[in-house]
Every structure is written in structure tokens, then in C-alpha cells.
Amino acid sequence: MKKVFYKLLLSRLILPFCISFIISDQASGQDRSIRFLNKLTERPVADVVVNCNRTGDFMSSNEAGFITLPEGTTSIWVSCIGYLTMAISTDTLKYTNDKTTILMEPTIMTLEEIIITSGMQQSVYKEISDLDIHMRPINNSQEVLRMVPGLFIGQHAGGGKAEQLFLRGFDIDHGTDIQISVDGMPVNMVSHAHGQGYADLHFVIPELIDRVQFDKGPYFGDHGNLATAGYVDFRTKNVLDRNFIKVEGGQFSTLRGLFGANLIRSGNEEKSLLMAGEGYYTRGYFDSPQGFRRFNGLLKYNTRLNRHNDLNVTFSGFTSRWNASGQIPNRAVSDGLIGFYGAIDDTEGGETSRYNASATLTSKFKDGSRWINQIYYNRYQFLLYSNFTFFLRDSINGDQIRQAEKRNLTGINSKYSKQYQVGDFRLITTAGLQMRTDIVDDIELSHTKDREILLNPIKKGDIREVNPGIWFQQEIRLDNGLEVDLGARLDYFRNEYIDHLENNRKLTASSMIFSPKVRLNYSVNSHWKIYWYGGKGFHSNDTRVAVEKEGKEVVTPAWGSDLGTIVKLGEKALLQSALWYLYMQQEFIYVGDEGIVEPSGRTQRLGLALSLRYQPTQRLYFDIDLNLSRPKAIDEAQGEDFLPLAPIFTSTGGVSYKTPNGWNGSLRYRWMGNRPANEDYSTVARGYFITDLSVNYSKPRWEVGLVVQNAFNRRWKETQFDTESRLMGEIEPVTEIHFTPGSPFMARLNFSCFF
Asked: Which of 156, 303, 326, 564 lies at a CB distance of 3.0 to 4.6 Å from 719, suitable for a disulfide?
């Protein structure tokens, strides 16, 4: 049976590659394309904004730097962040094999270059993302997610597992309501041993990030499961501007070393091979040594097969091990039993690994349409020891649990897009197919002691989860600046659970969900855009919930709406604001730490988000994000309708400065307001205000830098939970705040050399 399954799966993955390659290779005719290249490095330049005939008809170059002009274009105005703006007459362009090249001259990036473009193919946060990725430093793997305005992260075990996420009034746990991907590969793990949608980004090397695309809400057809609060898509570099070696060291025996090199690099990037690796170790700031060690590797090959087909192949992976201090109760610290950075059970910890393989074929046809096909494979392993309640259930051995799994994840992403003109309407049709299969063996929840002794298994089995989905978007652009995008998505879930504790009993379930979406953009001018989004999204629940509920009410629908505007205030400031609403229907949640199913009623969230970017001079850059939300349980009485740990107020921001002689620095803050820790707000999860600092001195051949976390050495609680526990010797359990302490003052020096 397994052989038949794998043969069928393989045929589904390979077939789109073959079809697209054959069809595109036979294509001929006029497709007069422009390719934008960096004048110095000859690398392709993505997201070049092209204004055709000065009409407000904006287009953007793709990842390979290509754009196809509409018929009747006589002149173009070309702009891109970090490059000089140009006005070009199309009569001056010289074509070879229906293609021409425009060289973009790099310059100091300024906010003045920002154009408020139309185009549903781009995120409404594109302008902010472009600014931040150029102006803000990314100092560690956590900073990767902090590029998303309003997204907060926290480590709630003091170890190397995936961070807890907060966004738009959600305590997302490890990824239940945000879809995260890297180079098209899903990061979220459905039906995970520790929690639904578990998203571990430690396999990403921050220095290799090229672009970050994100958006908020359930409005995007190509983003299905888990994309209720939003999605984040990271793209890594195909080619490095220069090879590098970097070493880093700091307090708490923190050491990091990495390298990146172009093993093959053609001038026009028609062929390249990138290799990178990273090693990391830290003792940690906890009283009990963390001993966190991680190793990352990446190999990425990019080649042009012929004039119509590009192939990108990526191999990456990581492995890590750590000890953890876990969550500690307030009373243990106040009574002097342990210190603020102490531990109750210092045998917590775990290990994990992930190995990825991906191949993407991009095919371009004679009519300008594109077909992108990707296949991917992930091999994943996870082992975690935790103790949240100490001696509540077992007063002798303690309550330590083990969560483990082994997973094979395969999938396909297929996307076809075409632009064409019908009368006065410019149309963009996009359609796609996605297929994901998770084969999880020996997914386990067990009661253990000291990591070594198995006391009793609680849950153990195998999971088979298949999720095919199809989606469609039709964008209509009008000459008056109005754009309409109508989209829809259909997803099917097939769930299977083989229970090892009940004589390998097999349970199955299936479900289906249809998600309509609509988006409206109105560009008043090149400095002001208004938008309204509405639509339906969803997140699936754990397979163990699906089979128990026979597939009913386990794919949780979410309906949302955004009303927002993006406005450029003069030439030096950019303001984005949005008023948003999200409603979620009844759901059943599988609690991975306890192996039980808990019902959760209907919820709604209303919020306001503000983002301001200000650049008074070429060297000075300010950014600030403010987020207000009111999360509420609809079916509960007033005063008892708070959603525990859901953020109400958050803010991030900072200032960055660059000098002509190579000095640059950044001072940033994170502000999380007080939150309810329980349903009636009688217990408070205290907020925090933390400041980070970085300073760098750069030369063409080398760079030295200093990174400081928690620059003012404030004591703060990174994550908090209102839970019941019992310590050794206590007669009765106590319900109170349990927390993981945030980092104290921590400084790291780094040195890089380029070649």
C-alpha cells in the first residue's frame, strides 16, 4: 500500500514540471521583455516599479528581474529603493531575442524613492517591508519575525524550541493562526506533537534573507491553512553580493560562526551556486546551563535551462539540542526557593532536526504568462521534555512529559498567472494548485522522569494528513486607479490516526472548506492609496481532533475585514493605518501538553494598526508601529469574556543612523502592554518595555559590530501563563502566574570579512 501511495505522490509532483517545461520550450514569438540588473553586481533587481506612459499604470519586476510591458507603451519611469530613478523612452531600447536589459545604478536608499503603487500581486505592506529590510539590521533568528509590524515573539521554555507568537489580538502559540514559509516551503507543522501549526524558524540563517513579504488577515487565495491572522513569506538570496566569513561572541559563553560563498556565479546570474553554513552555541543566561547548540547548512543552485525556463534547487537543514529552565511560578521566586533565572525541573530540554529539499521551475510563455511549479520534501524530527505543573499529578516522580515525532512532509505549489487587456480593463488572472502530505510516525505524549524513565504513555500513534487545495484570483485594473480582486479557495482534508495504545485502531475523517475573498484598492495618486479587504480564511485542527469529531467542526472558519490607507506625507514620511475585524467560529483545540480536546467558543477581534516611517535625512531613519486590539469571547458574560494572554496594546520602533565613513547604528524598543491572564482579568500578565542596541563599522573588506540585548538591563517576563501547579512539599496546588524570564543585558561582538 505504501509503495502505491509513494508512486502516486511522485507522479503528482513531477508531472507539472514536465508539462510546463515541454510547453514553454516549444513557445516562440514575441515576448519583448525587460530585465533589470544591478549595474555593479549584474544581479537581477526585483520589485522595480515601472510607470508606463506616466499614466499611473504601475508594474513591478519579478524575482528574476523581468517585466513585460503592455502594448502601446512609449515611455517608462523606473524606480526602485536603493537605485537611481530613470525616465526611458522605449524607442531607445535595443532588443536581442525579444529581450533587453536595463542597468540600475545603486545609490543611498531614501524614503523619497517610495511610490505608493497599485497592484494586487503585492502586499499592502510592500513599501514598509522594502524600507525596513534595507534600513533595519537583523541580528539574530528572532529578528527575522520581528520584521512584521505588530508581531511579537517569546520563548516560553528558555530553550531552543519554536517561539510563541502574538499578532492582531491573537496568542498564536507556536503558529496556529499565522502561515509562515521560506522560499515557498511551509514552516508550520500541522498535527504537531507540541502544538498545531508549530513553526520553528531556527533553520533560517538571517544573513541570507533577501526579502520578506507579509500581509495580515484571511484575504489571499494563495495562502490557505493557518493564514487567519496573516502570513509571512521569507525569500533567501540566490547569489551573494560578496562572499563572507563571520564570527560572533558574547556573554554567557555565546559563540557563533558562519560563512557564505558563491561557488558558481555568472555575470547575469543565469547560473549560480550558493553555499552557507552556521554554528551556534550558548550557555544561556539561566542558572541551569542551557547548552544550546545549533548547526545550519544551505546549498542553493540556480540556472537558466533555456530562454523560457529557469530552475532553482535548494537543499538546507539544521539540527539543535538544548536544556531548558522551563516556566517557573511566581511564589518560588518570591519565597526565595529559586532565583529569577532559576528552574524547578532542570532536566527539561530537547532536540530537533529538519532537512529540506526543494526544486522550482519557472516557465515563461510567448504571451507573457508564467507558470511556476515547486516540489519540496522535509524530513523532520522532534523530541521535547517539559514540566509545566511540577508535582500536581504525581507527587513522587513529578509531571515531566515527553513529546516526540518523526515526520516526512512532501508537497507541491503550482501557480499560473497571465496579464491581458480587455477593452479599457487590464486583467490579471492567477490560479494555483497546492498539495501537502504529512506522514508522522510515532507521535507521542508520555509521562517521564529525568528524561530517562518512561512512567506511562498517554498518547502514541501515527498520523497521515493530506491537504490538497485549489485557488483562483481575478484582478481587474481600471484606468481611474480602482482595482478589484475576486478570489476563492477550496481545500480538502483527509485525516487518519493509527492509535498504538488501542491495538493500532485506525480512525479516519475528512472535511472540506470553501473560502471566498474580495479586495479593493483605490490609488488616489502616487502618494495615497485606500484599500478594503474582506474574506474568509481558516485553520485546521489536529488530526487527533478531526478523527474524534468525525471531521465535523474541526476546520475553523474565520471571517475578516480590513479598511486601510497608505499615504506618503511629503517626501520624507510614510503612514499606513488599518481598522480591522476578525470573527472566528467554534473550534475544538487539541492540547498537545495534556493529550485532551478542549472546545473553544466563538471569538471576535477588533483592532487598529498604525505604522509610521520617517526619514528626515539620507542618514537618519525612524520607524514606529502601534497596535490596539479588543479580543473578546462572544458567548461569555461581560467581564468574563477576555481571551487569556491575547495582546491588547503593542508597539515596536526605533531609530537607525548611517554615516558616510562606514558607521551605522540602531536603537530599537519592544513594548508589550498588560494583558489578561485569565477570562475575567483578575490575573494580569504584566507588560514590558525592552530596548536593544546595535553599532557597526563597515569597510569594503571587513565589518565589526556590537549587538546589545536589553540595553538597560531590565528584569522582565518574556512569556507568562496563569496555570495550576504544586511544588514538592506543598499540600494544595496553587494557581498563579508562571513565567519564563527574558534576557538580561547581553552584549555580543561580531567580525566579518568579505572576499
From this structure: 156
Specify the pTM.
0.91
Long-range CB pairs of 301-305 (<8 Å, 24+ gap) are 301/264, 301/272, 301/273, 301/274, 302/238, 302/239, 302/269, 302/271, 302/272, 302/273, 302/274, 303/270, 303/271, 303/272, 304/270, 304/271, 305/21
Average the pLDDT over 281-305 and give the result: 95
Grid cell at residue 501: 495504545
Comparing CA positions, the residue from 706, 687, 689 lying closest to residue 697 is: 706
Q: 191: which 3 cell numbers?
A: 498535527
202-216 mean pLDDT? 91
Query: Which region among 31-45, 179-193, 309-323 has the lowest average model confidence (pLDDT)?
Result: 31-45
Which has the higher per-residue pLDDT, 562 or 61? 562
What SS3 state is found at 329? strand
HEC per residue, 187-229: CEECCCCCCCCEECCCCCCHHHEEEEEEEECCCCCCCCCCCCC
Domain positions in the chain = 152-160+162-594+603-754
Nearest to 329 by CA among 275, 391, 379: 391
Can you read off the three cell numbers belonging to residue 708? 546589545
Alpha-carbon distance 744 to 746, whole Å?
6
In 71-224 the beta strands, taken as DSSP E runs, fall at: 75-79, 86-89, 99-104, 152-154, 164-167, 170-173, 178-182, 185-186, 188-189, 198-199, 209-216
Report the 10 Å Cβ neighbour count for 406.
17
E strands in 325-400 = 328-329, 348-364, 370-386
Can you tell me whether residue 676 is helix, strand or coil? strand
Residues 184, 358: Cα–Cα separation, whole Å: 9
Task: Give Cα 181 to chain centroid, integer Å.
Answer: 6
Query: Does residue 403 carry a pLDDT above 80?
Result: yes
The three three-digit cell numbers of residue 467, written as one number: 491537504
Contact 282, 251 (CB under 8 A): no
Task: Say what the pLDDT of residue 663 is.
Answer: 92
**CA distances for 281 relative to 159, 294, 323, 435, angstroms:** 12, 7, 12, 37
Cell of 702: 571587513
Contact 82, 107 (CB under 8 A): yes
* Cβ atoms 726, 390 nearer than 8 A: yes
Report the share of the chain in percent with pLDDT over 70: 92
CA distance 636 to 618: 52
State the cell numbers at 610.
Answer: 498604525
- Classify 169 in phi/psi space as left (phi over 0), alpha (psi -120 to 50) or beta: left
Among residues of the chain, what percentage have pLDDT more than 90? 67
More confident residue, 304 or 479: 304
Dihedral angle at the C-alpha atoms of 593, 595, 599, 604, nearest 10 degrees? 30
Phi, psi (deg, nearest 5) at residue 259: -145, 155
361, 309 contact by CB (below 8 A): yes
What one-character DSSP code corresponds to residue 587?
E
pLDDT at 119 over 90: no
Tell me which architecture the domain covering 152-160+162-594+603-754 has in CATH.
Beta Barrel (2.40)
Q: Tell me the average pLDDT across 39-63.
A: 75
pLDDT digits 0-9 by tens, 563-619? 999 999 988 999 999 999 999 987 767 776 777 777 778 999 999 999 999 999 988
**258 CB-near residues (< 8 Å, 6+ apart):** 205, 207, 245, 246, 276, 277, 278, 279, 296
- Tens-place pLDDT, residues 480-530: 778 999 999 999 999 999 999 999 999 999 999 999 999 999 988 878 999
Q: Which residues pair with 410 in a beta bridge?
A: 377, 437
User: CA triplet 44, 50, 54: central angle to 5 degrees?
Assistant: 160
**CA 410 and chain centroid, separation:** 19
Mean pLDDT of 445-450: 95
Lowest mean pLDDT among 73-87, 367-381, 518-532, 627-641: 73-87
